[in-house]
Recover the amino acids of this structure.
Protein backbone atom coordinates (compact mmCIF):
# COMPACT_ATOMS: atom_id res chain seq x y z
CA UNK A 1 0.00 0.00 0.00
CA UNK A 2 2.78 2.45 0.92
CA UNK A 3 4.58 1.74 -2.36
CA UNK A 4 1.37 2.44 -4.28
CA UNK A 5 0.92 5.78 -2.52
CA UNK A 6 4.55 6.64 -3.22
CA UNK A 7 4.13 5.90 -6.94
CA UNK A 8 0.93 7.94 -7.05
CA UNK A 9 2.66 10.88 -5.39
CA UNK A 10 5.52 10.67 -7.85
CA UNK A 11 3.08 10.80 -10.75
CA UNK A 12 1.37 13.84 -9.21
CA UNK A 13 4.70 15.63 -8.85
CA UNK A 14 5.57 14.91 -12.47
CA UNK A 15 2.44 16.82 -13.46
CA UNK A 16 3.01 19.88 -11.27
CA UNK A 17 2.89 22.63 -13.88
CA UNK A 18 2.22 26.29 -14.41
CA UNK A 19 -1.51 25.62 -14.58
CA UNK A 20 -1.60 23.94 -11.17
CA UNK A 21 0.99 26.05 -9.40
CA UNK A 22 -1.46 27.43 -6.84
CA UNK A 23 -2.41 24.00 -5.56
CA UNK A 24 -0.63 22.83 -2.41
CA UNK A 25 0.28 19.17 -2.43
CA UNK A 26 -0.27 17.69 1.03
CA UNK A 27 2.44 15.16 1.62
CA UNK A 28 1.99 12.04 3.74
CA UNK A 29 5.37 11.35 5.40
CA UNK A 30 4.58 7.65 5.81
CA UNK A 31 5.28 7.00 2.13
CA UNK A 32 9.05 7.35 2.42
CA UNK A 33 10.52 3.97 1.48
CA UNK A 34 13.15 4.10 4.24
CA UNK A 35 11.65 5.76 7.35
CA UNK A 36 13.98 7.60 9.70
CA UNK A 37 13.43 7.49 13.46
CA UNK A 38 13.46 11.12 14.62
CA UNK A 39 12.09 10.59 18.11
CA UNK A 40 14.23 12.14 20.85
CA UNK A 41 17.50 10.42 21.67
CA UNK A 42 19.51 11.23 24.78
CA UNK A 43 22.50 13.54 24.48
CA UNK A 44 25.52 13.83 26.72
CA UNK A 45 26.06 17.38 27.95
CA UNK A 46 29.56 18.75 28.31
CA UNK A 47 30.86 19.59 31.74
CA UNK A 48 31.32 23.34 31.50
CA UNK A 49 34.41 24.21 33.51
CA UNK A 50 37.91 25.69 33.59
CA UNK A 51 40.78 23.20 33.38
CA UNK A 52 43.77 24.55 35.34
CA UNK A 53 47.31 23.14 35.27
CA UNK A 54 50.41 23.77 37.44
CA UNK A 55 52.19 25.17 34.38
CA UNK A 56 49.83 28.16 34.54
CA UNK A 57 47.99 27.15 31.35
CA UNK A 58 44.21 27.19 31.60
CA UNK A 59 41.54 25.91 29.19
CA UNK A 60 37.80 26.43 29.27
CA UNK A 61 34.58 25.68 27.42
CA UNK A 62 32.32 28.12 29.28
CA UNK A 63 30.93 29.96 26.26
CA UNK A 64 28.25 29.39 23.64
CA UNK A 65 29.45 27.20 20.79
CA UNK A 66 32.20 25.53 22.83
CA UNK A 67 33.07 21.85 22.43
CA UNK A 68 35.75 20.35 24.67
CA UNK A 69 34.99 17.31 26.77
CA UNK A 70 38.27 16.90 28.68
CA UNK A 71 41.89 18.11 28.85
CA UNK A 72 44.91 16.28 30.19
CA UNK A 73 48.53 17.36 30.50
CA UNK A 74 51.29 15.18 29.04
CA UNK A 75 53.89 17.60 30.42
CA UNK A 76 54.17 21.35 31.07
CA UNK A 77 53.93 22.20 27.38
CA UNK A 78 51.86 19.38 25.82
CA UNK A 79 48.13 18.82 26.31
CA UNK A 80 45.58 16.31 25.06
CA UNK A 81 42.10 17.62 24.32
CA UNK A 82 39.33 15.06 24.03
CA UNK A 83 36.41 15.76 21.74
CA UNK A 84 33.35 13.50 21.73
CA UNK A 85 29.95 13.84 20.03
CA UNK A 86 26.63 14.67 21.67
CA UNK A 87 25.37 11.14 20.89
CA UNK A 88 25.72 8.38 18.33
CA UNK A 89 25.34 7.36 15.56
CA UNK A 90 26.34 10.66 14.06
CA UNK A 91 27.80 12.23 10.94
CA UNK A 92 31.61 12.30 10.78
CA UNK A 93 32.04 15.99 11.52
CA UNK A 94 34.06 16.26 14.77
CA UNK A 95 33.56 19.83 15.92
CA UNK A 96 35.64 21.51 18.63
CA UNK A 97 35.90 24.96 20.18
CA UNK A 98 37.74 26.05 23.31
CA UNK A 99 39.81 28.90 24.66
CA UNK A 100 43.02 29.02 26.65
CA UNK A 101 45.33 31.49 28.36
CA UNK A 102 48.35 31.73 30.62
CA UNK A 103 50.01 34.24 32.95
CA UNK A 104 53.28 34.34 31.02
CA UNK A 105 54.24 34.01 27.36
CA UNK A 106 54.37 30.34 26.49
CA UNK A 107 54.60 28.02 23.50
CA UNK A 108 52.59 24.82 23.84
CA UNK A 109 51.42 21.84 21.80
CA UNK A 110 47.79 20.73 21.82
CA UNK A 111 46.60 17.43 20.39
CA UNK A 112 42.96 17.14 19.37
CA UNK A 113 41.84 13.56 20.01
CA UNK A 114 38.59 11.89 18.94
CA UNK A 115 37.04 8.46 19.52
CA UNK A 116 38.84 5.91 17.34
CA UNK A 117 36.12 5.66 14.67
CA UNK A 118 36.19 9.38 13.82
CA UNK A 119 38.53 11.43 11.67
CA UNK A 120 39.74 15.01 11.98
CA UNK A 121 37.85 17.27 9.55
CA UNK A 122 38.23 21.00 10.19
CA UNK A 123 41.35 23.15 9.92
CA UNK A 124 41.66 25.07 13.24
CA UNK A 125 40.65 28.73 13.27
CA UNK A 126 42.20 31.14 15.80
CA UNK A 127 40.83 34.34 17.34
CA UNK A 128 41.75 36.78 20.09
CA UNK A 129 38.21 38.04 20.61
CA UNK A 130 35.85 35.32 19.35
CA UNK A 131 34.80 37.53 16.44
CA UNK A 132 37.74 37.94 14.06
CA UNK A 133 39.18 34.63 12.89
CA UNK A 134 42.06 33.30 10.81
CA UNK A 135 43.16 29.74 9.96
CA UNK A 136 46.16 28.44 11.88
CA UNK A 137 49.51 28.70 10.09
CA UNK A 138 49.94 25.42 8.20
CA UNK A 139 53.44 25.00 9.65
CA UNK A 140 51.87 24.90 13.14
CA UNK A 141 49.33 22.19 12.37
CA UNK A 142 49.65 18.52 11.46
CA UNK A 143 47.04 15.80 11.06
CA UNK A 144 48.04 12.30 12.14
CA UNK A 145 48.59 9.67 9.45
CA UNK A 146 45.42 7.84 10.53
CA UNK A 147 43.54 11.21 10.63
CA UNK A 148 42.25 10.33 14.11
CA UNK A 149 43.98 13.31 15.75
CA UNK A 150 45.66 16.61 14.96
CA UNK A 151 48.59 18.41 16.60
CA UNK A 152 48.54 22.20 17.02
CA UNK A 153 51.47 24.40 18.03
CA UNK A 154 50.17 27.51 19.78
CA UNK A 155 51.80 30.64 21.16
CA UNK A 156 50.10 32.10 24.23
CA UNK A 157 50.70 35.75 25.09
CA UNK A 158 50.60 36.65 28.78
CA UNK A 159 47.12 37.55 29.96
CA UNK A 160 45.49 37.19 26.53
CA UNK A 161 42.78 34.69 25.71
CA UNK A 162 43.17 32.58 22.56
CA UNK A 163 40.10 30.98 20.97
CA UNK A 164 40.58 27.79 18.94
CA UNK A 165 37.66 26.42 16.94
CA UNK A 166 36.87 24.12 14.05
CA UNK A 167 34.89 26.95 12.45
CA UNK A 168 34.23 30.57 13.30
CA UNK A 169 31.75 31.10 16.13
CA UNK A 170 28.30 32.12 14.91
CA UNK A 171 26.10 31.61 17.97
CA UNK A 172 22.37 32.12 18.44
CA UNK A 173 22.98 35.45 20.21
CA UNK A 174 25.12 36.62 17.30
CA UNK A 175 22.32 35.65 14.93
CA UNK A 176 19.79 37.51 17.07
CA UNK A 177 21.99 40.61 16.90
CA UNK A 178 22.22 40.15 13.12
CA UNK A 179 18.42 39.98 12.89
CA UNK A 180 18.00 43.18 14.93
CA UNK A 181 20.55 44.95 12.74
CA UNK A 182 18.59 43.97 9.62
CA UNK A 183 15.40 45.33 11.20
CA UNK A 184 16.68 48.82 10.40
CA UNK A 185 16.13 48.13 6.69
CA UNK A 186 12.72 49.34 5.47
CA UNK A 187 11.97 46.05 3.69
CA UNK A 188 12.72 43.84 6.69
CA UNK A 189 10.09 42.74 9.20
CA UNK A 190 11.09 40.29 11.91
CA UNK A 191 9.39 38.13 14.50
CA UNK A 192 9.92 34.96 16.50
CA UNK A 193 7.95 31.97 15.28
CA UNK A 194 8.53 29.63 18.19
CA UNK A 195 11.20 28.28 20.46
CA UNK A 196 13.77 25.53 20.30
CA UNK A 197 13.64 22.50 22.56
CA UNK A 198 15.63 24.41 25.21
CA UNK A 199 13.68 27.64 24.79
CA UNK A 200 15.89 29.64 22.42
CA UNK A 201 13.95 31.83 19.96
CA UNK A 202 13.44 30.81 16.34
CA UNK A 203 13.70 34.00 14.30
CA UNK A 204 11.91 34.79 11.05
CA UNK A 205 12.48 37.67 8.61
CA UNK A 206 10.07 38.78 5.92
CA UNK A 207 11.86 40.81 3.25
CA UNK A 208 9.58 42.63 0.85
CA UNK A 209 7.33 45.60 0.26
CA UNK A 210 4.25 46.38 2.34
CA UNK A 211 1.76 44.82 -0.10
CA UNK A 212 3.07 41.27 0.23
CA UNK A 213 -0.21 39.36 -0.05
CA UNK A 214 -0.44 36.98 -3.01
CA UNK A 215 3.17 37.64 -3.98
CA UNK A 216 5.35 34.69 -4.87
CA UNK A 217 7.75 33.53 -2.22
CA UNK A 218 11.33 32.35 -1.96
CA UNK A 219 12.07 30.64 1.37
CA UNK A 220 15.68 30.79 2.57
CA UNK A 221 16.84 28.76 5.57
CA UNK A 222 20.16 27.79 7.14
CA UNK A 223 22.01 26.34 10.11
CA UNK A 224 20.22 23.04 10.58
CA UNK A 225 23.64 21.53 11.35
CA UNK A 226 25.65 23.43 13.98
CA UNK A 227 29.23 23.38 12.57
CA UNK A 228 28.20 24.39 9.05
CA UNK A 229 29.41 27.96 9.32
CA UNK A 230 30.75 28.37 5.78
CA UNK A 231 27.21 27.87 4.45
CA UNK A 232 25.98 30.39 7.02
CA UNK A 233 28.53 32.91 5.71
CA UNK A 234 27.23 32.45 2.16
CA UNK A 235 23.68 32.92 3.48
CA UNK A 236 24.72 36.19 5.18
CA UNK A 237 26.21 37.51 1.94
CA UNK A 238 23.12 36.41 -0.01
CA UNK A 239 20.80 38.37 2.28
CA UNK A 240 23.08 41.42 2.35
CA UNK A 241 23.06 41.52 -1.45
CA UNK A 242 19.27 41.30 -1.57
CA UNK A 243 19.02 44.28 0.80
CA UNK A 244 20.97 46.62 -1.46
CA UNK A 245 18.98 49.53 -2.82
CA UNK A 246 19.27 49.16 -6.60
CA UNK A 247 16.94 48.79 -9.56
CA UNK A 248 17.35 45.01 -9.71
CA UNK A 249 16.19 44.52 -6.14
CA UNK A 250 13.42 47.09 -6.41
CA UNK A 251 12.04 45.27 -9.45
CA UNK A 252 12.45 41.92 -7.71
CA UNK A 253 10.48 42.92 -4.62
CA UNK A 254 7.62 44.27 -6.73
CA UNK A 255 6.81 40.64 -7.55
CA UNK A 256 8.43 38.51 -4.87
CA UNK A 257 9.15 38.31 -1.18
CA UNK A 258 11.76 36.43 0.84
CA UNK A 259 10.90 34.40 3.92
CA UNK A 260 14.07 33.84 5.91
CA UNK A 261 14.87 31.55 8.86
CA UNK A 262 18.50 32.35 9.80
CA UNK A 263 19.06 29.59 12.38
CA UNK A 264 16.87 26.51 12.74
CA UNK A 265 19.02 24.75 15.32
CA UNK A 266 20.08 27.33 17.95
CA UNK A 267 20.41 24.71 20.71
CA UNK A 268 22.81 22.58 18.71
CA UNK A 269 24.85 25.64 17.76
CA UNK A 270 25.20 26.96 21.32
CA UNK A 271 25.85 23.51 22.79
CA UNK A 272 28.70 22.94 20.35
CA UNK A 273 27.07 19.89 18.79
CA UNK A 274 28.59 18.06 15.85
CA UNK A 275 25.27 17.57 14.06
CA UNK A 276 22.12 17.30 16.17
CA UNK A 277 19.65 19.43 18.10
CA UNK A 278 18.98 19.15 21.84
CA UNK A 279 16.70 16.20 21.09
CA UNK A 280 19.70 14.34 19.70
CA UNK A 281 18.30 14.35 16.15
CA UNK A 282 19.56 15.49 12.75
CA UNK A 283 16.89 18.11 11.96
CA UNK A 284 17.43 17.66 8.25
CA UNK A 285 15.97 14.16 8.50
CA UNK A 286 12.77 15.29 10.22
CA UNK A 287 11.03 17.10 7.35
CA UNK A 288 8.40 14.39 6.92
CA UNK A 289 7.69 13.56 10.54
CA UNK A 290 8.13 16.89 12.36
CA UNK A 291 8.74 15.25 15.71
CA UNK A 292 11.27 17.89 16.69
CA UNK A 293 9.98 21.31 17.82
CA UNK A 294 12.24 23.27 15.48
CA UNK A 295 11.21 21.63 12.20
CA UNK A 296 7.58 21.39 13.29
CA UNK A 297 7.27 25.08 14.16
CA UNK A 298 9.13 26.31 11.08
CA UNK A 299 7.07 24.13 8.72
CA UNK A 300 3.76 25.00 10.39
CA UNK A 301 4.56 28.70 10.26
CA UNK A 302 5.42 28.54 6.55
CA UNK A 303 2.26 26.58 5.76
CA UNK A 304 -0.03 28.87 7.77
CA UNK A 305 1.56 32.05 6.42
CA UNK A 306 1.29 30.79 2.83
CA UNK A 307 -2.39 30.00 3.35
CA UNK A 308 -3.15 33.31 5.05
CA UNK A 309 -1.41 35.40 2.40
CA UNK A 310 -2.45 33.17 -0.50
CA UNK A 311 1.24 33.07 -1.25
CA UNK A 312 2.74 30.84 -3.91
CA UNK A 313 6.04 29.36 -2.69
CA UNK A 314 8.12 28.77 -5.81
CA UNK A 315 11.64 28.24 -4.45
CA UNK A 316 13.29 26.89 -1.29
CA UNK A 317 17.00 27.44 -0.62
CA UNK A 318 18.80 25.69 2.23
CA UNK A 319 22.40 26.77 2.96
CA UNK A 320 24.77 24.07 4.29
CA UNK A 321 28.44 23.12 4.41
CA UNK A 322 30.35 20.02 3.39
CA UNK A 323 33.88 19.14 2.25
CA UNK A 324 33.55 20.90 -1.15
CA UNK A 325 31.20 23.32 -2.88
CA UNK A 326 28.22 21.50 -4.37
CA UNK A 327 24.63 22.18 -5.43
CA UNK A 328 22.17 19.40 -4.51
CA UNK A 329 19.09 19.51 -6.73
CA UNK A 330 16.45 17.18 -8.18
CA UNK A 331 16.34 15.41 -11.57
CA UNK A 332 14.69 17.36 -14.39
CA UNK A 333 12.04 14.62 -14.61
CA UNK A 334 10.48 16.04 -11.45
CA UNK A 335 8.84 19.16 -12.83
CA UNK A 336 8.63 22.22 -10.61
CA UNK A 337 7.02 25.64 -10.74
CA UNK A 338 10.15 27.19 -12.22
CA UNK A 339 11.52 24.54 -14.59
CA UNK A 340 15.28 24.52 -15.24
CA UNK A 341 15.89 27.36 -12.80
CA UNK A 342 18.50 25.20 -11.08
CA UNK A 343 20.60 24.89 -14.24
CA UNK A 344 20.51 28.55 -15.25
CA UNK A 345 21.02 29.78 -11.69
CA UNK A 346 24.01 27.62 -10.86
CA UNK A 347 25.55 28.21 -14.27
CA UNK A 348 25.15 31.96 -13.83
CA UNK A 349 26.79 31.84 -10.39
CA UNK A 350 29.74 29.80 -11.60
CA UNK A 351 30.30 31.94 -14.71
CA UNK A 352 30.32 35.12 -12.63
CA UNK A 353 33.20 33.90 -10.46
CA UNK A 354 36.81 32.86 -11.00
CA UNK A 355 37.13 29.16 -11.88
CA UNK A 356 36.72 26.95 -8.83
CA UNK A 357 35.84 23.30 -8.06
CA UNK A 358 32.05 22.95 -7.84
CA UNK A 359 29.64 20.09 -8.43
CA UNK A 360 26.00 19.87 -9.48
CA UNK A 361 24.32 16.70 -8.15
CA UNK A 362 20.67 15.80 -8.76
CA UNK A 363 19.14 13.53 -6.11
CA UNK A 364 15.96 11.47 -6.07
CA UNK A 365 13.14 12.31 -3.67
CA UNK A 366 13.89 9.61 -1.11
CA UNK A 367 14.93 11.35 2.10
CA UNK A 368 12.91 13.43 4.60
CA UNK A 369 14.99 16.59 4.17
CA UNK A 370 13.96 20.21 3.73
CA UNK A 371 14.71 20.13 0.01
CA UNK A 372 12.23 17.30 -0.52
CA UNK A 373 9.60 18.98 1.65
CA UNK A 374 9.62 22.18 -0.44
CA UNK A 375 9.16 20.15 -3.60
CA UNK A 376 6.54 17.73 -2.30
CA UNK A 377 4.56 20.24 -0.22
CA UNK A 378 4.52 23.15 -2.65
CA UNK A 379 5.78 21.87 -6.01
CA UNK A 380 8.59 24.40 -5.55
CA UNK A 381 12.06 24.28 -6.99
CA UNK A 382 14.36 23.35 -4.13
CA UNK A 383 18.14 23.47 -3.86
CA UNK A 384 20.63 22.70 -1.10
CA UNK A 385 23.45 25.22 -1.44
CA UNK A 386 26.59 23.61 0.01
CA UNK A 387 29.84 25.48 0.68
CA UNK A 388 33.16 23.75 1.37
CA UNK A 389 34.35 23.80 4.98
CA UNK A 390 37.58 25.52 4.04
CA UNK A 391 36.46 27.53 1.00
CA UNK A 392 38.17 30.94 1.09
CA UNK A 393 36.02 33.30 3.16
CA UNK A 394 36.36 36.18 0.71
CA UNK A 395 35.28 33.87 -2.10
CA UNK A 396 32.29 32.70 -0.04
CA UNK A 397 31.07 36.28 0.20
CA UNK A 398 31.48 36.70 -3.56
CA UNK A 399 29.56 33.50 -4.21
CA UNK A 400 26.74 34.33 -1.80
CA UNK A 401 26.28 37.74 -3.39
CA UNK A 402 26.44 36.27 -6.88
CA UNK A 403 23.77 33.72 -5.93
CA UNK A 404 21.46 36.56 -4.89
CA UNK A 405 22.07 38.59 -8.05
CA UNK A 406 21.60 35.63 -10.40
CA UNK A 407 18.42 34.53 -8.63
CA UNK A 408 16.92 38.02 -8.80
CA UNK A 409 17.75 38.44 -12.50
CA UNK A 410 16.25 35.09 -13.49
CA UNK A 411 13.06 35.60 -11.52
CA UNK A 412 12.55 39.18 -12.72
CA UNK A 413 12.64 37.92 -16.32
CA UNK A 414 10.40 34.93 -15.57
CA UNK A 415 7.19 34.72 -17.61
CA UNK A 416 4.25 34.32 -15.26
CA UNK A 417 1.49 34.86 -17.82
CA UNK A 418 0.19 31.28 -17.38
CA UNK A 419 -0.41 31.63 -13.63
Amino acid sequence: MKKSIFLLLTVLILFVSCQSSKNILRYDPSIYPDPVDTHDRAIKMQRKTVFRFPSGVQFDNKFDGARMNDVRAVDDSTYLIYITPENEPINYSPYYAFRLWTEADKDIAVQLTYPSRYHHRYIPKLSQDGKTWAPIDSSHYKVAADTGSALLKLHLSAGKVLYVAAQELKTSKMTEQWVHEKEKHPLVHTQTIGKSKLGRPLWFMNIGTESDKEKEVIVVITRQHPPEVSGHLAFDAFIDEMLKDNRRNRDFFKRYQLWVVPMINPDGVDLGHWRHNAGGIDLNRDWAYFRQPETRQVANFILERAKKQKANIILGLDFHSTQTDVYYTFPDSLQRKIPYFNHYWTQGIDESLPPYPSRFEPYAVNSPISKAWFLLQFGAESITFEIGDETDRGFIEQKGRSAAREMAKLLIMRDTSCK
